[in-house]
């Protein structure tokens, strides 16, 4: 049981990091990024492949963040000329392109067979609890640092400008400031956080395959952010934990009525339950648990 | 030192919105543009401020050609515009709106923010003082810490003027500053524009409210159907037969 709780805490923390990345992009800046999982995948594969060359994990994590951010740069240059909904489509397409590239470039990623045997984080502590707890401690620390960094950004002149972009981009241009420059930085920052989340995922699960990086992951992160409260750092944290509660809680739905729901149907039933939760949230608590800053 | 607009053409599909529009004004002067709806005033504003590219013609500010510059670069060159429908940053307070407009903040780069916190703090304090002065100037103190989206229409117009001032322009382009503003506030805005102009800031003003505009500016440009119909002192221009026909429908005033 303890092992299970630690496992979902680690996955929950990975979602916290992803949600923090999306919070700076959408919550603060208004960028509708529907391709978050693409940066997550890039971070996961980058750190896995680099560490398997014998590079220490600390360095491979830094590389994961840097490579994800670097990939965000050209995406930003091309896509930031587009308005919200087109940007959403382009980023969604980007994440699918990443997944299909991973699937087809077998020389690098081993295609659909995936990469087994990714070095485990804190392998020195063994496979059991000590290693898992150390991983949890490390990711919790990274989440804390990321949250503090975002708080600092939100309260700074940079934060003021990106919120101005969210409110009215043309007005900002009329004042002599180029929204594109800020949007690219925001996109890269959110991508770097997703990249680090991917690295944690890779070195915790220790097996990567393209089907782990479907758009559903992106929308789970969006759900977390919406349930927690858009535009707030605390909202990202609370929302991601709530998401885990739903995803894991629905696992036990079948225990309630084992005869009614077959094991095969279970995946769809879970998804339905999560969808229902989102609908109820938008109906009865549209501002999210912590409160939606953008609807202030 | 002047803003010089020469031979601007702009078509949207088959519709010629602007045809050979030219005018000139001292950078620190006051010029009004009037004309009926659809005369091309707002299109002209968008072309001059760089939000729309002209098909032909040129815009020069203090001898510097602006034609290849985008909107943000033109604003940095010293010419800041407002919008017909105010575009406030609605979640930010009036004070934050003002502070966001201040140019050259090192805290606006992520590197500056984390590597030079002392410098960012010092700049922020200076900008705060400037914003406070602008709030006082425009008598916005009672709403200074209200999200700008909650202001009345007139207050938004004032706040937009303040935000434009914070960008430190030499010339401000005002798009219908009196539209939908109550008469008391109109007088206040006019009076403040006078004060600012005396400090050396120029204003190019589009306006429907002829009465207010002709008291504010010494020179008017009248537009109709994408062309400049007449230009000159308000009294002369308004006496012009063609202007009366186009703008006032030939009615006696």
Describe this structure in words.
The complex is a heterodimer of chains A (296) and B (253). By secondary structure, chain A is an all-alpha fold. Chain A has one domain (2-214). Helices cover 73% and strands 0% of the residues of chain A. Chain A is built from 13 helices and no strands. The longest helix of chain A is centred in the N-terminal third of the chain and has 27 residues, at 2-28. Chain A is globular and about 60 Å long. The N and C termini of chain A lie far apart (41 Å). The mean pLDDT of chain A is 91. By secondary structure, chain B is of the alpha/beta class. Chain B has 2 domains: 2-88 and 152-248, Rossmann fold (3-Layer(aba) Sandwich); 91-150, no CATH class. Chain B has helices spanning 41-49, 71-76, 94-101, 110-115, 117-137, 153-166, 183-198, 210-216, 234-239, 241-248; strands spanning 2-12, 15-26, 30-34, 56-61, 64-65, 79-81, 171-175, 202-206, 219-224, 227-232. In chain B, the strands form 2 sheets. In chain B, strands 6-7-8-3-9-10 form a 6-stranded mixed beta sheet, sandwiched between helices. Chain B has a 4-stranded antiparallel beta sheet with strand order 2-1-4-5, with helices on one face. In chain B, helix 3 (94-101) runs parallel beside helix 6 (153-166) and helix 5 packs across helix 6 (153-166). The model of chain B has no long low-confidence stretch (mean pLDDT 92).
Low-confidence stretches of chain A: none
Largest interface: A-B, 27 and 39 residues
Q: Count the strands of chain B?
A: 10
Q: Return the string of H and E elements of chain A.
A: HHHHHHHHHHHHH
The overall pLDDT of chain B, averaged over residues, is: 92
Taken together, the total number of domains of chain A comes to 1
Number of domains of chain B: 2
């Amino acid at each position: 049981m303890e092992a299970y709780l630690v496992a979902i805490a680690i996955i929950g923390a990975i979602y916290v990091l992803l949600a923090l990345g999306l919070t700076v992009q959408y919550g603060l800046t208004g960028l509708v990024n529907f391709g978050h999982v693409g940066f997550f995948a890039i971070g996961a594969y980058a750190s896995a492949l680099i560490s398997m060359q014998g590079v220490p994990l600390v360095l491979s994590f830094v590389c994961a963040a840097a490579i994800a951010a670097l990939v965000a740069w050209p995406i930003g240059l091309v896509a930031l000329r587009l308005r919200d909904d087109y940007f959403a489509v382009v980023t969604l397409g980007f994440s699918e392109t990443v997944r299909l590239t991973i699937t087809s470039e077998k020389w690098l990623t081993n295609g659909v067979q995936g990469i087994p045997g990714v070095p485990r984080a804190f392998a020195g502590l063994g496979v059991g609890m000590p290693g898992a707890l150390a991983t949890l401690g490390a990711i919790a620390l990274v989440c804390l640092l990321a949250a503090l960094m975002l708080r600092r950004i939100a309260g700074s002149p940079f934060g003021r400008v990106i919120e101005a972009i969210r409110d009215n981009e043309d007005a900002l241009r009329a004042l002599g400031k180029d929204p594109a420059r800020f949007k690219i930085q925001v996109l890269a920052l959110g991508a770097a956080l997703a990249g680090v989340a991917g690295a944690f995922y890779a070195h915790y699960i220790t097996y990567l395959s393209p089907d782990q990086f479907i758009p559903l992951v992106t929308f789970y992160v969006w759900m977390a952010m919406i349930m927690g409260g858009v535009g707030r750092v605390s909202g990202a944290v609370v929302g991601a934990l709530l998401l885990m509660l739903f995803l894991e809680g629905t696992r036990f739905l079948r225990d309630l009525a084992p005869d009614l729901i077959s094991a095969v149907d279970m995946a769809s039933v879970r998804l339905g339950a999560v969808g229902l939760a989102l609908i109820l949230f938008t109906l009865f608590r549209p501002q999210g648990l912590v409160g939606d800053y953008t609807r202030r | 030192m002047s803003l010089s607009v020469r031979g601007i053409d702009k078509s949207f599909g088959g519709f010629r919105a602007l045809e050979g529009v030219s005018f000139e004004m001292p950078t620190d002067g006051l010029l009004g543009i009037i004309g009926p709806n659809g005369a091309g005033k707002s299109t002209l504003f968008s072309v001059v401020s760089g939000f729309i590219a002209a098909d032909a013609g040129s815009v020069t500010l203090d001898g510097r050609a602006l034609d290849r510059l985008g909107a943000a670069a033109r604003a940095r060159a010293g010419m800041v515009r407002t919008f017909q429908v105010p575009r406030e940053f609605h979640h930010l307070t009036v004070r934050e709106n003002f502070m966001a407009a201040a140019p050259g903040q090192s805290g606006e780069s992520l590197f500056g923010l984390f590597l030079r916190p002392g410098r960012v703090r010092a700049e922020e304090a200076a900008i705060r003082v400037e914003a406070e002065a602008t709030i006082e100037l425009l008598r916005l103190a009672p709403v200074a810490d209200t999200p700008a989206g909650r202001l009345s229409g007139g207050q938004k117009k004032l706040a937009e003027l303040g935000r434009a001032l914070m960008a430190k322009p030499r010339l401000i382009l005002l798009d219908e500053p009196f539209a939908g503003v109550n008469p008391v506030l109109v007088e206040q805005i006019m009076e403040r524009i006078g004060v600012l102009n005396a400090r050396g800031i120029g204003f190019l003003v589009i306006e429907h409210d002829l009465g207010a505009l002709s008291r504010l500016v010494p020179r008017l440009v009248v537009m109709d159907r994408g062309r400049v119909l007449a230009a000159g002192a308000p009294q002369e221009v308004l006496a012009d037969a063609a202007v009366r026909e186009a703008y006032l429908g030939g009615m006696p005033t």
